[in-house]
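Format notes (please read before filing issues)

Several people have asked whether sequences and structure tokens are stored in separate files. They are not. Every record keeps both together, in the order shown below: the sequence lines, then the token lines. Line labels are part of the format and must not be stripped during preprocessing.
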Amino acid sequence: HDGKIVMAPDQTRSYTLNLTIKASETLEEGETYLLPLKVSSSTEGIYASGNNSHCVYLVKSYRNEALCDKGKDAVKNILFLEVNRDNPLNLLEIFREDGKLFFDALVLFSANINYDAGTGRVYLYNNENVQFLLDNYVTYLRPLQNRGIKVYLCIMGNHDAAGVCQLSEIGAKDFARELAITCRRYGLDGAAFDDEWSDAPDGSNPLLTTPSEIAGSRLLYESKSAMPDKDIVIYTARNSKLSFFMPECEGVQCNEFIDIAVPDYNSDPSYIGSFSYSQIAGWSVDMGNPLGVTEEKGRSVREKGYGWFMWYALNPQSYFTNQITDDGKPVTIAQYPLMNTVSNGLYEQGVQEPTHLYRKNDATRYPIERQ
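Then the structure lines:
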């Protein structure tokens, strides 16, 4: 609003202030600095109350660390990580030839939207692997964010009456508030949604409704409203209610409350609805079973102006070796050549061979032992 806030008498309002910190050249690498900030009002009778008027930022210089920023118009890579098997820190070991980090965003796959049949409550559920990463956020997630990688928490069904696209308006508002609290508590950059693995809703529960794209849009809209400073990501699985043509909610077009839309893996979007190309992943690849992934596919995504390329199931154990079944057929394709091939199409440069890896729930950096 051009820096202007209109207040009625006795009114309390909340606003998010964006802050840009320009680092001094005198900051020493690896040192942490305190930056105290205080908000004051020049208008009599208007003030920021209590702890809302001041805060302290911790500032650290990463000038000599590899970052993921590849330039304004470069395609970004978003990875859906199997948290039941893999370690987020492995994203810090994949570099382009120029030293830039290859991945730009991480989706923790996955937390769940759950239903308590006894109380009728819909709630956010983290399995032990998701909760471990959140509880140890400083060790496993913040290092990624410090290098420019965004971290999102994915929400999907869990074989019960709750679902991403079957909450009523009041149910969506309640769940969105809980999700926003979790994202803020752990410093996450937003949430991703996957409409799969839900059973039929309980029609007698006012928190639930018939599965529909309208209900899906409502949850996405309420989630964005509850945390407007965070990103909302959708994964448009086949036969789900999430799509590139989500209906508007409260008069707001879906491209205004969805920041990134991703097609089902091993496919591209056949249409983009009201989204801009920069909000869309031009291709999604299952790294365990890639189909149709070539250097030309990466080049096509770049030339069409798509903003993202989606990856699923990075696995350091498969960087250099195909896993073969008893009948001699590969079930997992070597992942390093796959990333290298796509990178050449996306950026006209390849990916450096990874030399180290992190094992699950272990912050120790291990050299890769190639057989």
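For reference, the curators noted about this record: The chain has eight helices and 15 strands. Residues 66 and 306 are 24 Å apart (CA to CA).
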